[in-house]
Amino acid sequence: MNSAVTVAAIATMMAGGCAGASGKGDVYETIRLGRDTFPAAQGEIVISFIGHGSLGFQYRGRTVYVDPVRSLPGGEVDYTKLDKADYILITHEHDDHCDATAVRQLSKPDTRVICNGGAAAKLGKGETMANGDVLDVAPWLTAETVPAYNTTPGHEQFHPNNGRDNGYVLTVAGRKIYVSGDTEVIPDRVVEARPEIVFVPVNQPYTMTPETAAGQVRKLAPGFVLYPYHYGGTSTPTDISRLTTLLDGFDADVRIKPMQ
Predict the structure, then answer these.
(1) What is the number of domains present in the chain?
(2) Does residue 170 lie in a domain region?
(3) For residue 158, what pLDDT is reported?
């Protein structure tokens, strides 16, 4: 992924805001990275693919970031050029998920930062959520935390199964979105929630292999949109296209974005 294109495209994308919210929605059409838009109650959910584990969501002029980080495998992101955040969610305290400078650049006086305890300690602020918590963030946004952890022997130290790290099941204007964080397991609670939009990580040794990811998402009710993310960036190459092959014949819309 070209770093110059990444920064310029994302800055233009997020500065445009939601189509119909700022009057600049048409700017999306000229961006290489594009956008994905989903209809929702009284508006649209617009998803921005910033890179690796960093995501942006917009709904009716409100902006949510998950794990915003400046230094990504595809290049540096200047968050001062992006829309300010109404809400920032952080899954855990690792540097590729929790970046105090990015949080500061995105924050305005009323921005709420929601995170696990480790990220709150690193940032020196934040509303903490533990696994199993449910928070009504806004009338249109609910966040439920689920566990995120490793299961491969010898890898448990990266993301231990002790409740430290969060994944999020977000309800955005009635639509369920699962952002897994760093995990090798999709918890039963996510299966019960029946998410319509799913983000799962695919990079060993820290998260799933394509084979693991394919097996885990098959637990979900079919018909969802699947975004593999947080792939690459390690000495172990990830053939992300293999996930599409492994899910051939399964009812999921697999969309590969530049989320190295």
Answers:
(1) 1
(2) yes
(3) 77
Under 8 Å between Cβ of 169 and 177:
yes
- Structural domain including 208 reads 3-254
163 located within any domain: yes
Question: What is the pLDDT at residue 102?
Answer: 97
CATH of the domain at 184: 3.60.15.10
**Which residue, among 172, 168, 206, has the nearest Cα to 187 in the 3D structure?**
168
Q: Which two tokens stand for residue 210?
A: 């394509």
210: which residues sit within 8 A by CB, 6+ positions away? 202, 238, 239, 240, 242, 243, 246
Residue 198 counted as domain residue? yes
Query: What is the C-alpha to C-alpha distance for residues 98 and 121, in angstroms, rounded to an integer?
Result: 11
In a domain, 260, yes or no: no
Please report the pLDDT score of residue 34 as a whole number: 57
pLDDT of residue 47: 96
**Two tokens at 214?**
């394919």
- Work out the angle at residue 19's Cα, subtended by the Cα atoms of residues 16 and 20, and round it to the nearest 5 degrees: 115
Residue type, 213: A
pLDDT at 29 (0 to 100): 26
